[in-house]
Amino acid sequence: MSTSLATLIADIDRADSPERLIAAVQALAAARLEGGIPTLIRALGFNNPGAAVTAVKGLVQMGEAAVMPLLTLLDDYNYGARAYAIRALAAIADPRALDVLLSAAEADFAPSVRRAATKGVGQLLWLKLADSERAIAQSRTYDTLVRILDDADWSIRYAAIAGLQALGQSTPDLQPQILETLRTLADSDIAVQARVQWAIATLQSPQPVPNSFPGSQTPIPNP
Known about the structure:
By secondary structure, the protein is mainly alpha-helical.
């Protein structure tokens, strides 16, 4: 017999150890009940990274149903919760999150939030937009990512290149412009240089390019 939503939420509220909290969040996520979405969003702000990651996975599994609650309940004060919410929105890839992702990518004070938004905004499912809106949204995304290429933080520049690559792969009309931008980009960081070359090779080749950079000893972040 399935456990009720009220019981699942109560189990989260009365969890008395980090392990039990993670297990309770996992149970709620596994139930895939739309009524549990606000509680999963609340779990993003718990002082428990395992619970937050579990909540992100649950929200992503809920897909489109989680988008508006995530946008409505986005935490303006807890940057950790905001970063997890941005990651969930980026993974769901619904273009209704475009404005939030663009704003976070360019202006959020937390680097973790900016990285998640910068990478994710290039991966949106553009076909969900009407034809009249799609080109405008893609152009706004390109312009924002190009501005971010001047960021002082190398990891955010790295994420911008990942975003441009994804945008180019899904937007043939912008691909020549994106390739030209990448070819003329001069960056002093070896990891960013390698990411640029990988993006160019991927956009130019119909075959998948391996996720590796022979000879580079610089740690490569997730984007």
